[in-house]
Amino acid sequence: MVAPERDDAALVAACRAGDNGAFDEIVERHRRAVYQVCFRFVNSHEDASDLSQETFVRAWKGLQNFKSEAALSTWLYRIAVNVCLNRVSLKKLYTEPLEADKFIDPRAEEPGAALIRGERAAAVRRAIAGLPEKQRATLILRTYHELPHQEIAAILGSSVGAVKANFFHALANLKKLLGREP
Amino acid sequence: MNHLTPDELVDAVEATLAAARHTHLQQCPHCSREVVQLAAILRESRHVDVPEPSPLFWDHFSDRVRQAIAAEPAPRFAHWFEWPVLAPMAGLALLIFALVSAVPQGGAGLERLQMAVNGPGRSDTDTSAAGTSDKMAASEFADATWDVVSELVGDLDVETAERAGIAIGPGSAESVMLQLTSSEQQELVRLLRAEFQRAGG
Predict the structure, then answer these.
(1) For the stretch A59-70, what's the b/e string if a residue is b when 16 or more beta carbons lie within 10 angstroms of its beta carbon?
(2) In chain B, domain spans
C-alpha cells in the first residue's frame, strides 16, 4: 500500500521531529521552482544550481523559524531571493554562453524558427538578469511565480507601492533593452 | 489631464485599474500606448521558460543537498536545549555541587561561606528566632550577602570542578551569577543555608 502524500505542513512537522526523509521530500517537491527563481536571477545553470543548493541548506538550518501559517513555497522563495541578492552583490553578472541554445529541441519546429525563438528567449533572459536587483526580484516573483504584490513586499522588505513601482520600471527597462521603444 | 502613474499603469496591465481611472485610459492615447507596450513585454517575458536541466541533474541535486546538510551541524529544533537556557542551568548546578563539596572540608573557607550566607554576627539559632523584621529585611539581606558569595565562588578551585567531571573557564561562575534573577539568587542562598544546617556548620 502506498503511503498518502504528506502536505508541506506535515513535512515541516516531521522534519522538526527529526525525520530526515521529510526534508528530502521537501527538496524534491520544491527544487524545480527554487531553481527557476535562481536561474532567472543569474541566468546561469551552474550558478543557479549552487544557489538552489544553498537555499535548501539555509532552509534546513532555519526550519525552526518557519511560521506554518505561511506557504512553504513563499518562504523558500524568500530565502532563494536573499541568497541570490547576496551572491549577485558579490559576483559580476553572468553572460549567457553561446551554447545556451543546446537546450532547444530542434525536432519541435523548423530549425530557423527555433533558432530565432531561442535567440529571442536568450535575449529576454539576459535582459532580465541585467535589471537592477529589486526590479529583477519583483519581476521574477510576480511574473513567473504569480505572488501577490503584498507577499513580494514582505519578501523584499518594502511597501506594496514600491513593489508596483519596481515592477513598472522592470517592464519599462525590459522594453528598452529588448528594443521595443517606439 | 493627469496621466496614469506607474502604479496605475501596472494596475492597468494587470486589469485591476480603478474604474475612475479606466475612463482616462480609454480617452488618453499616450497612456493606452504605454499600457499596450508594457502588456506586450510582460506577455513575451512570461513565455520565456527556464531551460530544463536533465533528469540526472535533479538526482544529483538532491544528493548534493543531502551531503551539504550532512556536513552542517544539526539544527536545534527545541529551544529548551539551546545554550542560553542550558548554560545558566549547568552553571548553577556546578556552583551548588562545588559549594556543597566544599562544606565538609571546614576551616576558614567554610566560616567565610557561612558568614556570607548567614550574615556577620548571626548564627543558625538567630534564624529560628527571626521575627517579622527579618522577613522584611530578607530581600535586602540576600542582595547584600550576594556580592560576598559571588566573590567566594569566583575563586572555586578547579580540582573540585574536575572531580565533578566539569571543566570551568576563568570567571564562568561569576558570569553565571550575573545571569541569575533576584529570586534565583535568594533560592541559592536558601539551598546553601539548608546544606550548612545539614552539615552541622
Answers:
(1) bbeebeebeeee
(2) 6-46, 79-199
- What is the reported pLDDT for B156? 55
ipTM here: 0.78
Q: Please give the full DSSP string across B25-93, using - where no structure is assigned.
A: HHH-HHHHHHHHHHHHHHHHHHT-PPPPPPHHHHHHHHHHHHHHHHTSPPP---GGGSHHHHHHHHHHH
CA of A173 vs chain B CAs: smallest distance (Å): 10
Query: Is the separation of the CB atoms in B173 and B94 below 8 Å?
Result: yes
Q: State the Cα–Cα distance between residues A148 and A142, nearest whole angstrom.
A: 7
Per-residue pLDDT tens listing for chain B (201 residues): 689 999 999 999 999 999 989 999 999 999 999 999 999 999 999 989 899 998 899 989 999 999 999 888 766 654 444 455 556 666 767 777 776 666 555 455 555 555 655 555 544 444 444 444 555 555 555 555 556 555 555 555 555 545 555 555 555 566 666 677 777 778 888 888 887 787 765
A116/B contact by beta carbon, under 8 A: no
B56 contacts in A (CB within 8 Å)?
none
Q: What is the mean pLDDT of residues A140-165?
A: 94
- Identity at B142, one-letter amino acid code: A
Which residue is closest to A43 within chain B, CA to CA? B50
> Which residues on B lie below 8 Å from A63 (Cβ)?
75, 77
Residues 52-91 of chain B with CB under 8 A from chain A are 52-53, 57-58, 61-62, 64-66, 68-69, 72, 75-77, 79
Q: Is A70 on the interface with B (CB under 8 A)?
A: no
| Domains of chain A as residue ranges with CATH | 1-95 (1.10.1740.10), 107-182 (1.10.10.10)
Q: Specify the DSSP class assigned to residue A123.
A: H
Set of chain A residues whose Cβ sits within 8 Å of the Cβ of B9: 168
The Cα A106–Cα A124 span in angstroms is 20
